[in-house]
Amino acid sequence: MAGEKKPMTASPDAAPASPRSAAPGQFGTPIRAPAPAAPVVAAAAAAAAERAAQEEQQQKKAVEFKQKHAEFWAEAAALAADLGVDVNFVVFLPGGQLAVNDVFHGDVAGAAARQRAAELREARKAREQITMLEEAEAQLPELKAALESRRQELMAAAASTSDADGPDYFAEL
């Protein structure tokens, strides 16, 4: 066809294009292609090792974050349940690009019931203490009478002994 280009074939008598492509023996020994450089291979291995170390470090950070987040989550849930308040917290993921928002709604009725139960326990303890005081107060006259009779016995025993035995320590009672 007209206008088509045909590939050119080199004639056997033509000179080689460059000394690198020359046949052996012509222009000396041919230049060989350089072997891959050792620093290039070492750099590629170092880069692969660095990537593996970074991935391992990221995995460790992710595991640590999950553990800390689970602890914080449990504390927030316990706080919401105990106090009956809503707890809203935001935890930023490592790197600071993402965040996790958790909300715990407190059980207001449950917290009020626990508060009421605590108040009733305190009131019961106070009543028990008042009852013990009233019982001690009721026993006080009996104890006073027993003490007075013992004092009288000691005074009589002291009076029966002579004054020569020593001073009377019970006279002031």
Provide an overview of this structure:
The chain is mainly alpha-helical and 173 residues long. It has a domain at 38-140. Helix content is 57%, strand content 7%. Strands 1-2 form a two-stranded antiparallel ribbon. A hairpin with a 6-residue loop joins strand 1 (87-92) and strand 2 (99-104). The longest helix has 53 residues, at 108-160. The relative contact order is 0.04. The model has no long low-confidence stretch (mean pLDDT 77).
Separation, N- and C-terminal Cα atoms: 150 Å
As a percent range, the share of helical residues equals 55-70%
Outline, from the CA principal axes? elongated
Return the structural class: mainly alpha
Strand order of the largest sheet: 1-2
Strand content: 5-15%
What's the arrangement of secondary structure elements?
Layout: H1 38-83, E1 87-92, E2 99-104, H2 108-160
Antiparallel strand pairs: 1-2
Spell out the key features of this protein:
single chain, 2 strands, 57% helix, two-stranded antiparallel sheet, 2 helices, mainly alpha, 173 residues
Explain briefly what this protein structure is.
This protein is mainly α and 173 residues long. The chain is 57% helix and 7% strand.
